[in-house]
Specification:
alpha+beta; 5-stranded antiparallel beta sheet; 4-stranded mixed beta sheet; 9 strands; about 15% helix; disordered C terminus
């Protein structure tokens, strides 16, 4: 029986540079986009001074772009909502930065407090609303970048929903 270990025979694979995967410069997986959203959320100095509130329409600001993705900052005064929509061919990560938002789909209603995140695939239809008496701020990462936001005729009815905690 041979007592040589694989390490003794082949050497330390991590010491062989050509076998290591290079570190990615930009996010490429859902987990990496979630991580990007969390890192931006944690760095309030990066976005807090940009936030503005508009009583007549939802305020938004493109915070960052990268290869194949966009990051948007949105504010929501009480009562403002997106209407039922999807994001065309884009997937996304929604992160609540401040306040509380309600997400409604045809089947479920969720209350999302500060720090809550939702990940969605292309074609996912939802409505996001500020149902509270306080303003809210959210961060949205879209990949690929948002090119369309088709509105859906049917509105989500909160009374007909199952309520799922965030």
């Amino acid at each position: 029986m041979n007592s040589d270990s694989d390490l003794q025979i082949a050497g330390d694979i991590l010491a062989v540079q050509h076998l290591l995967q290079p570190a990615r410069e930009h996010p490429a997986t859902v987990a990496e986009f979630v991580g990007l959203a969390r890192s931006i959320a944690a760095d309030r100095a990066q976005w807090e001074h940009l936030v503005s509130y508009d009583a007549t329409s939802r305020w938004y600001h493109r915070l960052r772009t990268g290869p194949g993705y966009e990051v948007w900052l949105l504010s929501w005064v009480p009562g403002q909502g997106s209407g039922l929509h999807d994001h065309g061919p884009s997937s996304g990560v929604l992160t609540v930065l401040d306040g509380e938002l309600t997400e409604r789909t045809e089947r479920v209603q969720r209350t999302l407090g500060a720090g809550a995140q939702r990940v969605f695939a292309p074609g996912y239809a939802h409505e996001v609303v500020n149902d509270t008496l306080e303003p809210a701020v959210s961060l949205h990462v879209y990949f690929p970048g948002l090119t369309e936001m088709p509105m859906h005729a049917a509105q989500c009815s909160p009374a007909a929903q199952d309520v799922v905690p965030a």
